[in-house]
């Protein structure tokens, strides 16, 4: 059984007991435990089920590379699936559940898949689910979806908060083992701004576990001293529980800090560090590789390094009798540590015929039996190891002997953690002697200066002895004093990709490569047989390394099996791509603070508060919220809109037009510039006058419109659409800065400096005259004129412009005074029947007048000529943006659909976006079309459906009837008419 | 613009309206009207916005007079002087870590007098460091509530990076 030892455990505090629950069962651990170590201390070896075959699963590792020990944590708003038990710090009240089992962890019906494994070979999705075709949608896909993924998706709203943090440093060091600490010390002593990140809650990495001495003292003491020295340096910052998640171009690194996962504390749960570093040192260590023998997935088969981690760090023994199996010397450390802790080690199987070095001798001296040239033929046991069958590594797996044990500690060698090195293109090289892919320092990720902006340090570079690690880290951080270290002499590792070397199919089909996704040696060999020669293809076909652990344990073993099967060398097969993040990070951390009220900026006009209090039914316009209509008690939206239109046409309406873009264009060349920006002439506009203008892109398409006012000799004010203010300002600046940089023109976007109120309707002049302060008569302020003055004691600029066809003034006022004028207008307007109106009434009134709306009548493919706006296109001008494009054959073409009005025969409203059908079908068998609706409304003024649309040869077909089929059946017939439905002579606006 | 205060790990204060004037022109011309600060800095009441733009600040009630004075001094040069006081909201933030949560700026190494145009989470902003180590930040007035929301949210908890 796995249990807590009477002594030991450098991370745990035995005086601080913590209660937690697993699958509803109450258990206890100590402060400093991980969920995994606490479960093991409680003899809870079985932790989950594998993905495909629902095989029993327990820990394989003690760290971030863990594929198996995944849990659902928390409940409701704090629920989190796929949490690695090895990285989950225990806290009081922690609640964990195992995953991927039904009905229970101990008895799982999905395990039947394992019995069917011969029918679920590599690529079985592709083979099984292709035929018959209809089965995909109705049977296969629902089945796959149900069985996909390990953890459950959270259902409740995440109750935690998250944030980002931007950090900058000269040197970023990722990894707080001795390499990272030494790199940070070296750079810190040299005065660099250093940031050091460590993903776990403890400094020091493996060295303190491995009984190393540095500078003549135990590694743990050296680590403590190093941390203390770093803390004393003001130029060095350190962070525990912060993983270097990804490396991106230009020295950009994402760090993932877990703030409250280990507690129930307040504040953000995760913090995403967005780091810009001058240089990056990845001191990310190495990952031990499993060995591929039959039954290597049975709970109790654990990496050798993890077995000693549990003993040394958490005082946990995984079992009473541990058999060690290895191809290198490092695993002997486990046997020695176990023996010293009083745990029985009946046997060490060393696959190397010549055996190990100094450590092997030490193990033998401790009385441990060592068998060289031997391996495991098969692990005995189901939910727990019960023994191993021993065989010759060089043979085919004939059992020589069976040994009872409950733990197998395996080591297939070490692979440097090259992920961060590789994220931005750092290349690897195969070291056949060390049996590892390691970073090629000559081919690092290249920064702007042509040199690598990432260096690796320590085991991440492929050096494994502490002395080499410290020397490498010191050098990579700029050079300095290198501490001395004692390392035992190590005998050479030998590659072992399959155990035994000639394992039969039966054994190979029980030898796991990917524990989480259930990919076995036989699956990769089958993929190779079926022609999947590329490692990237084989990966996807077999799903090797595609689980949440992204193949940290399985990649190298898998590609080695693949290369053997293909008869090629390992470096020729190569690795799959390493992509960020290193281990999964929360979606919340990525979103940061952006949730709830601050999910997105909401732009508010000065009158926003009034609208809120007066029944505004909102509509998003860009980031603005504008009132679509103002609802009175008991009214529907349609009724409110209808009332607003009628009231404005018959009495008086106020519109908050503050969102309208306002751009000042000033300078000696401003007129020339505006003549280029607009299709019509703006340079000859007189001060005090306004002109409606159209703007096109250089491809000729209509992009924005609005009224331009000339303020003085060299100043114009350009109104843009509400959504267009920012990009039209940018559009102007782009042309000024890149093309006409020598023109004397300045622009300023003053959209928000002014609130703007449209005062519209037959009583518009009356209310302004009542407010008093300026002459707003037809003589003093004629249609399309503007004047500065004051109203109700507030400084204003009044424009006589109309987008409704009524007598209309748009009053601009400094934004801070906007609400005051709005209130004054309402008060004064009461006797004239004043009511506010929203954007829908605005739209209807402009449609009744046949005025176009950018975004309705235009969609990026429409030119002004399509809309009958020839009158707004200057023929006198030599050039304007879009002029040349509009002369192209497909633009200057009578076959383009053109704007007309559409009057439904039955008075109904044509559905939005409807197409007018023509005879016959096109090459795709679709009904031919001859036009489409661009704007369609019920006109309260005319009490009928009106619409505008683009129709083939439309202006020449007045009176003809076209047909618009409706979605879901039926059709609407409409007569082609003039787009101006209301007051075609313009008498009402010009009074 | 409502004045408001949030006190958490840091203090955020929305300040009363301030006079702000956009001044554009050739810097040698503008030097006739104002003391032009060095690139990327704020000096006195003038901030450097871009190679041809300054932001002149003054008490709100003096904006009109300031604009008249600036325009008078710039007669004969190609320039633009516009009142943008009402288009701005202004905040005071006691601690740089709050800004470092929201702005991609090396706030820790910012000297007093440094002026940065950048973004505050999802909106445009500019901020500068004052002699006492606190910061002032301006953004568009339409998004004042959003700025307030993200600033007060960020100010609630410390990171303990700048000091720690």
Describe this structure as you would to a colleague:
The complex is a heterodimer of chains A (991) and B (164). By secondary structure, chain A is α+β, with helices and mostly antiparallel strands. Chain A contains 25 helices and 52 strands. Chain A has 6 domains: 3-112, 2Fe-2S iron-sulphur cluster binding domain, sarcosine oxidase, alpha subunit, N-terminal domain (Ubiquitin-like (UB roll)); 162-286 and 416-486, FAD/NAD(P)-binding domain, CATH 3.50.50.60; 288-413 and 491-573, 3-Layer(bba) Sandwich (FAD/NAD(P)-binding domain); 608-659 and 753-846, Gyrase A, domain 2 (2-Layer Sandwich), CATH 3.30.1360; 661-751, Aminomethyltransferase beta-barrel domains (Alpha-Beta Plaits); 893-991, Elongation Factor Tu (Ef-tu), domain 3, CATH 2.40.30. Helices cover 22% and strands 29% of the residues of chain A. In chain A, helix 5 links the parallel strand 9 (162-174) and strand 10. In chain A, helix 5 (178-189) packs parallel to helix 6. Chain A is elongated, with a radius of gyration of 38 Å. Chain B has 164 residues and is of the alpha+beta class. Chain B is built from 4 helices and 11 strands. Chain B has helices spanning 27-30, 63-73, 96-100, 144-155; strands at residues 4-7, 11-14, 19-25, 42-43, 46-50, 53-58, 79-83, 88-93, 115-120, 123-129, 135-140. In chain B, strand 1 and strand 2 (11-14) form a beta hairpin. Chain B has a 6-stranded antiparallel β-sheet with strand order 1-2-8-11-10-9. In chain B, strands 4-5-6-3-7 form a 5-stranded antiparallel β-sheet. At the A-B interface, strand 9, strand 16, strand 41 and helix 23 of A face strand 3, strand 7 and helix 4 of B.
């Amino acid at each position: 059984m796995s249990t807590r030892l009477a002594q030991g455990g450098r991370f745990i505090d035995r005086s601080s007991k913590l209660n937690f629950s697993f699958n509803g069962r109450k258990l206890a651990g100590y402060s400093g435990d991980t969920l995994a170590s606490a479960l093991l201390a409680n003899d809870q070896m079985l932790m989950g089920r594998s993905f495909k075959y629902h095989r029993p699963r327990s820990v394989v590792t003690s760290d971030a590379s863990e594929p198996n020990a995944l849990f659902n944590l928390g409940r409701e708003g704090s629920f989190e699936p796929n949490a690695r038990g090895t990285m989950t710090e225990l806290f009081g009240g922690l609640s964990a559940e195992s995953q991927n089992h039904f009905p229970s962890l101990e008895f799982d019906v999905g395990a039947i898949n394992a019995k069917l494994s011969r029918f679920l070979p590599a690529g079985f999705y592709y083979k099984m689910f292709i035929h018959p075709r209809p089965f995909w949608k109705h049977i296969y896909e629902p089945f796959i979806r149900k069985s996909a993924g390990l953890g459950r998706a959270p259902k409740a709203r995440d109750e935690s908060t998250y944030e980002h943090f931007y950090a900058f440093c000269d040197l970023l060091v990722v990894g707080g083992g001795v390499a990272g600490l030494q790199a940070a010390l070296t750079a810190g002593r040299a005065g660099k701004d250093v940031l050091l990140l460590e993903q776990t809650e403890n400094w020091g990495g493996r060295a303190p576990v491995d009984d190393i001495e540095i500078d003549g003292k135990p590694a743990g003491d050296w680590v403590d001293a190093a941390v203390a020295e770093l803390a004393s340096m003001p130029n060095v910052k350190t962070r525990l529980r912060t993983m270097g998640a990804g490396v991106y171009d230009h020295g950009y690194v994402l760090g993932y800090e877990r703030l409250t996962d280990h507690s129930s504390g307040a504040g953000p749960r995760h913090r995403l560090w967005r780091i810009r570093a001058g240089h990056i040192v990845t001191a990310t260590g190495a990952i031990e590789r499993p060995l591929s023998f039959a039954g290597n997935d049975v709970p109790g088969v654990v990496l050798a390094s993890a077995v000693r981690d549990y003993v040394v760090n958490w005082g946990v023994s995984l079992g009473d009798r541990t058999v060690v199996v290895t191809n290198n010397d490092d695993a002997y450390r486990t046997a020695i540590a176990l023996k010293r802790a009083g745990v029985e080690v009946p046997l060490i199987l060393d696959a190397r015929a010549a055996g190990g070095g100094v450590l092997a001798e030490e193990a033998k001296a401790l009385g441990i039996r060592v068998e060289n040239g031997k391996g495991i033929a098969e692990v005995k046991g189901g939910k727990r190891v019960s023994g191993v069958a021993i065989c010759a590594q060089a043979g085919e797996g004939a059992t020589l002997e069976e040994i009872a044990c409950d733990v197998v500690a395996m080591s297939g060698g070490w692979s440097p953690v090259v992920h961060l090195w590789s994220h931005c293109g750092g290349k690897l090289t195969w070291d056949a002697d060390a049996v590892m892919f390691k970073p090629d320092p000559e081919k690092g990720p290249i920064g702007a200066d042509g040199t690598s902006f990432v260096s690796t340090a320590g085991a991440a570079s492929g050096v494994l002895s502490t002395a080499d690690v410290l020397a490498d880290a010191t050098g990579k951080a700029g050079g300095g004093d290198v501490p001395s270290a004692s390392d035992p002499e190590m005998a050479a590792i030998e590659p072992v990709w399959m155990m035994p070397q000639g394992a039969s199919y039966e054994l190979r089909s029980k030898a796991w490569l990917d524990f989480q996704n259930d990919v076995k040696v036989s699956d990769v060999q089958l993929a190779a047989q079926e022609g999947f020669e590329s490692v990237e293809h084989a990966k996807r076909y077999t799903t090797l390394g595609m689980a949440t652990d992204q193949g940290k344990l399985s990649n190298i073993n898998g590609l080695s099996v693949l290369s053997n099967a293909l008869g090629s060398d390992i470096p020729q097969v190569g690795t799959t791509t390493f992509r960020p993040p290193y281990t999964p990070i929360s979606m919340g951390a990525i979103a940061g603070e952006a949730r709830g009220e601050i999910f997105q900026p909401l732009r508010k006009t000065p009158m926003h508060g009034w609208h809120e209090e007066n029944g505004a039914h909102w509509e998003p316009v860009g980031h603005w919220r504008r009132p679509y209509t103002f609802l009175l008690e008991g009214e529907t939206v349609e009724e409110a809109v209808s009332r607003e239109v009628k009231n404005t046409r018959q009495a008086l309406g106020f519109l908050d037009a503050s969102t309208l873009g306002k751009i000042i264009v000033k300078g000696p060349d401003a007129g020339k510039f505006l003549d280029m920006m607009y299709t019509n002439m703006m340079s000859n506009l007189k001060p005090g006058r306004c002109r409606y203008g159209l703007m096109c892109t250089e491809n000729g398409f209509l992009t924005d419109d609005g009224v331009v006012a000339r303020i003085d000799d060299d100043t114009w004010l350009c109104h843009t659409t509400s959504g267009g203010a920012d990009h039209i300002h940018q559009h102007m600046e782009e042309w000024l800065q890149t093309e006409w940089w020598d023109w004397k023109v300045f622009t300023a976007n003053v959209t928000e400096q002014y609130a703007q109120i449209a005062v519209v309707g037959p009583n518009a002049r009356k209310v302004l005259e009542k407010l008093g302060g300026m002459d707003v008569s037809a003589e003093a302020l004629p249609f399309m004129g503007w004047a500065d003055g004051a109203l109700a004691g507030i400084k204003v600029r009044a424009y006589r412009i109309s987008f409704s066809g009524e007598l209309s003034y748009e009053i601009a006022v400094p934004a801070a005074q906007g609400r005051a004028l709005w209130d004054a207008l309402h008060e004064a307007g009461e006797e004239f029947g004043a009511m506010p109106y929203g954007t829908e009434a605005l739209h209807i009134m402009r449609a009744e007048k046949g005025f176009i709306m950018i975004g309705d009548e235009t969609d990026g493919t429409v030119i002004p000529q399509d809309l009958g706006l020839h009158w707004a296109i200057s023929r006198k001008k030599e050039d304007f943006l879009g002029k040349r494009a509009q002369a192209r054959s497909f633009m200057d073409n009578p076959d383009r659909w053109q704007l007309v009005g559409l009057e439904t025969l039955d008075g109904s409203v044509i559905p939005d976006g409807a197409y007018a059908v023509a005879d016959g079908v096109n090459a795709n068998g679709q009904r031919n079309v001859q036009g489409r609706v661009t704007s369609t409304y019920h006109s309260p003024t005319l009490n009928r459906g009106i619409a505008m649309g683009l129709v083939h040869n439309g202006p020449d077909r007045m009176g003809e009837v076209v047909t618009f089929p409706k979605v879901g059946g039926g059709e609407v017939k409409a007569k082609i008419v003039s787009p101006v439905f209301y007051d075609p002579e313009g008498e009402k606006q010009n009074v | 613009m409502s004045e408001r205060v949030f006190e958490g790990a840091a203090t955020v204060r929305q300040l009363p309206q301030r006079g702000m004037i956009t001044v554009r022109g050739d810097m040698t011309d503008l030097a006739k009207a104002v003391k032009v600060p060095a690139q990327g800095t704020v000096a006195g009441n003038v901030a450097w916005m871009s190679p041809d733009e300054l932001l002149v600040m003054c008490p709100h009630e003096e904006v009109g007079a300031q604009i008249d004075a600036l325009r008078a001094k710039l007669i004969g040069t190609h320039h633009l002087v516009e009142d943008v006081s009402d288009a701005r909201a202004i905040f005071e933030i006691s601690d740089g870590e709050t800004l470092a949560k929201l702005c991609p700026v090396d706030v820790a190494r910012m000297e007093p007098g440094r002026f940065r145009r950048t973004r505050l989470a999802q909106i445009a902003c500019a901020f500068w460091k004052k002699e006492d180590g606190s910061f002032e930040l301006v953004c568009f007035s339409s998004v004042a509530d959003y700025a307030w929301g993200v600033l007060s949210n960020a100010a609630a908890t410390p990171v303990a990076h700048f000091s720690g």
